[in-house]
Amino acid sequence: MKVILKKDIQNLGKTGEIKEIKDGYGRNYLIPRGFVEIATAGIINSWKLSAEKRKKRMEQENEALKQVAEKISAITLSFSRPVSEDDTIFGSVAKSDIVKSLKAADIDIHKDMVNLPSSIKALGNFEVEIVLKSGIVAKVKIIVTAHNK
């Protein structure tokens, strides 16, 4: 099935690209969520005609995301977790904790944007990447300290 991507989809392509995908993937996942349109001749022509508008809108979105990235990079998140006597941390700092803390700072992101392979399970300073869009990445500083009993 040939489709036109309406949004950037990781591991598939960028907005406006025409891709060949499996029928089930398109019918059951991409089309119901509004990520793609079936690439018919009329739709391809309309996408070509609106290319200039899309380009301007994408530039504006990228500029806004760059400002958000600068705002995120200026933030330092601090987490306090209980520890044992030998400084073993009880619990961890997960993606959801980072998203909640950023939301408290008026920055709304999805947890899939947080590039954290596994939860932070140690005391110290860390840097975590926030991928706002392909090519626009911010690094947030995280400090994990011991919780006083």
Indicate the topology:
Blueprint: E1 2-5, E2 18-20, H1 23-30, E3 36-38, H2 41-49, H3 51-73, E4 76-81, H4 95-104, E5 114-115, E6 124-133, E7 136-146
Arrangement of strands in the largest sheet = 4-7-6-5
> Proportion of β residues?
25-35%
Q: What is the count of structural domains?
A: 2
Q: What is the H/E string? A: EEHEHHEHEEE
Average pLDDT reading: 89
Tell how many strands the DSSP assignment holds.
7
CATH homology-level superfamily of the largest domain: Ribosomal protein L9, C-terminal domain
In whole angstroms, how far apart are the ends?
60 Å
* CATH architectural designation of the largest domain: Roll
CATH class of the largest domain: Alpha Beta
Helix segment tally: 4
The percent of residues in helical segments reads 25-40%
Considering the chains and any ligands shown, give keywords for the structure.
alpha+beta; Ribosomal Protein L9, domain 1; Ribosomal Protein L9, domain 2; 2 domains; 3-stranded antiparallel β-sheet
Q: What would your notes on this structure say?
A:
The mean pLDDT is 89. The protein has helices spanning 23-30, 41-49, 51-73, 95-104; strands at residues 2-5, 18-20, 36-38, 76-81, 114-115, 124-133, 136-146. The protein contains four helices and seven strands, in the order ββαβααβαβββ. The strands form two sheets. It has a four-stranded mixed β-sheet with strand order 4-7-6-5. Strands 2-1-3 form a three-stranded antiparallel β-sheet, with no helix packed on it. The chain has two domains: 2-49, Ribosomal Protein L9, domain 1 (3-Layer(aba) Sandwich); 68-146, Ribosomal protein L9, C-terminal domain (Ribosomal Protein L9, domain 2, Roll). With 149 residues, the protein is α+β, with helices and mostly antiparallel strands. It is elongated and about 70 Å long.
